[in-house]
Amino acid sequence: MTKTVIVTGAASGIGLACTKILLEDGCRILAFDPNEEKMRAELPSVSEIRFFCGDVSKSEDCSLAVEKAVTSFGELSDLIHWGAAHSSKRWNELDAVEFNRIMEINVTGSFLISQAVAGHLIENNGGSIVLTTSTSVLFGVTGG
After folding, report:
1. Alpha-helix residue ranges (DSSP H) falling in the chain
2. How sure is the predictor about 61, in pLDDT bands with cuts at 50, 70 and 90?
3. 48-54, Cβ contacts within 8 angstroms, sequence gap of 24 or more
4. CA quadruple 4, 69, 28, 107: dihedral, nearest 10
5. What are the tens digits of pLDDT across the range 1-26?
6. pTM of the entire predicted model
């Protein structure tokens, strides 16, 4: 059975690599990332992929991504959530605005995309939701 997967963070890093592997394995992909231009440059333009430019921290974008996957492919079976952000500012340079932006994407975004996909999966015989992160969260990162 062919799987239809939403992959967040599909424009770069592990999300991009995951998307490429899933395409090679015969999956249909809704590639979800705020950088549509980079997704289109990095990923093949094949019938098994659709691009969705959006923000996982926005409930409407998450719902629209699910709708586009189902409309495009007739079903949705899985979510692999790689979409995340980090700040390269040091703790004493970080302000509340930047901190909240990171939290909205990484925490609220994980909840919202999972909620949107789970709602569909519950009504349509289940599926899988995989939430992931980079190991950089264990060690932190710094700029420059």
Report:
1. 13-24, 36-42, 59-73, 96-103, 109-123, 136-139
2. very high
3. 48/23, 49/19, 49/23
4. -70
5. 789 999 999 999 999 999 999 999 99
6. 0.91
